[in-house]
Amino acid sequence: xxxxxxxxxxxxxxxxxxxxxxxxxxxxxxxxxxxxxxxxxxxxxxxxxxxxxxxxxxxxxxxxxxxxxxxxxxxxxxxxxxxxxxxxxxxxxxxxxxxxxxxxxxxxxxxxxxxxxxxxxxxxxxxxxxxxxxxxxxxxxxxxxxxxxxxxxxxxxxxxxxxxxxxxxxxxxxxxxxxxxxxxxxxxxxxxxxxxxxxxxxxxxxxxxxxxxxxxxxxxxxxxxxxxxxxxxxxxxxxxxxxxxxxxxxxxxxxxxxxxxxxxxxxxxxxxxxxxxxxxxxxxxxxxxxxxxxxxxxxxxxxxxxxxxxxxxxxxxxxxxxxxxxxxxxxxxxxxxxxxxxxxxxxxxxxxxxxxxxxxxxxxxxxxxxxxxxxxxxxxxxxxxxxxxxxxxxxxxxxxxxxxxxxxxxxxxxxxxxxxxxxxxxxxxxxxxxxxxxxxxxxxxxxxxxxxxxxxxxxxxxxxxxxxxxxxxxxxxxxxxxxxxxxxxxxxxxxxxxxxxxxxxxxxxxxxxxxxxxxxxxxxxxxxxxxxxxxxxxxxxxxxxxxxxxxxxxxxxxxxxxx
Length: 563
Description:
The chain is mainly α. The protein has 28 helices and no strands.
C-alpha cells in the first residue's frame, strides 16, 4: 500500500511539472483588463489606444527586463497571450481573434521567437477576417502590422503601409499614425522602384506635412525626387514649379556653405533644361544641361548624366540636327548600360531609333526598335512584379490559408508526440520508482533506527552529564583532567555545541572561552562559574565581555543558549 501511494505521488508531481512544457502554456493569471479595455474601444481612436497598450505591455517591459536573454518578459508575454486566448474562447468573436493575432505578431516579432513566414500567414488570415467585418480602421491597423513584419523588404512594407494610409485618409487620420519622415521614406522607396505616381503621392504628403524639425537636406532631397517623378510622368508644369522652387531655395548663412545643399540647387537648375526643351527654349536648355552634365560627371551621377545627354539630344532634334543628336544618344546609351535604369534605357533607345529614322537608316532603326522592345518587355515584367507585390495580400490568401492549415497540423502532430513522450517518461519513472522503492524504504528505516539510537545515546549522556555536574560542583574544574572529563561528557550530550561556538566566534575557541561558554549554557551565574573555575567574579565578567565582543552580539546568554 505504501509503495502504491509513493508511485502515484511522484507520478502526479512529474505530470504537473511536464504538462506546462508539453502544451507550450504559461501562467494564466495575468491581469489583461487594460488590454481588454483598449480592445473594447469602438471609435476611430481604437488603433492608437491599442498601439499604446502594446508598447506599454511589450516594448517597455522588455527594456526593463534584466534577465538572461529577456526570458522573464518573454514568458510574461506568453502568459498574457494565453490569457487573451482563453478570454477569446469564452467570448467567441472574429474581432477578438484578430486582436489576439496582432498582439501575438507584435510579441513574437519583438522576441524573434517565430518564423516571419508563419507570422505573415497568421496576419493574412486576420486580414481576411477584418475585411469580412467591414472595420476599416482595424484593417488599416493590420496593414501597418504586416508592414512591420516585412520591414526587411522596404518595397513590400511601403505597399502595405500605402494600403493603410489610403484607409486612414478617408477619415483624415493619417497624421496620427504616420510622420512626415515616414512619408519621405516611402517616397524614396517608390522612386527607387520607378513607381513614380506613388513617389509623387508620398513626396507631396511629406512636403505638405513637414514640420520645422525636418532638416533642410531632407526637404531638398524629397523635392528632387518630386521634380524627377513629375518629369517621368510628363507633368511638366508641376515639374517646372518644383525644380524652380528647389533651384531658388533660400538658405541661411550656415546652410549656404553646405556643399550637399548647394548641389541640390545646382542639379535642380540643370534639370530645368529638360523643361526648357519641352518649351522649345533651346539656348536656355543647352546652358542648363551643360551645367548639369559638368556636375554629374564630377559626381559620377549616372542617372543625371543620362538625363543630360537625353536633354542635349532633344536640343539637337529641335534644331533639326539628328546627326549630333545621335552622337549625344550614343553617349547616353553607354551610360545607360552601366546600371539597369529601365525607364531611362527605354527613353534612350526610343530617341536613337528616332534619330536613325530621321537619317533614313531603316536597318539601324529596326535593330534599335528590337532592342527597345526587349527593354519594354523588361519594364513590363518589372511593372508586373510591382503590381504583384501590391496585390500580394489578396492574391496569396488561398495559399496562405493552406500554409496555416499545414502549420496547425504540424503543431498538432508535435503536441501528439510530446504527449507520447510524456507518457513514456511517466511510465519509465513509475518503473524506476518501483525498482528503487524498496531500497529507499530500507534506507529510510535504517536512518530512522540510527536517529533513535543517537537520541537514546544523548539521553544517556545527559544523565551522565547531570551526575558529573553534581560532582564537579563539589570538586570544581580547576585541573585540566577534570575539565577534559567534563568536556567529554558535555560533548556527548550536546554534540554540536563546540562547533557552533567556533562559528559564532569566527575562530577556534580557547579552552578558557569553552569553559565559560559551557557553564553559561548550563545556566550558571558569575559566582557559580567563578567558584567552579577557581577565579573571582570580576574575571568571569571580563571573560564574558571578551566573548561577547568576539561574537558581536547584544545578549550573550541568549546567543549561547541558542547553540
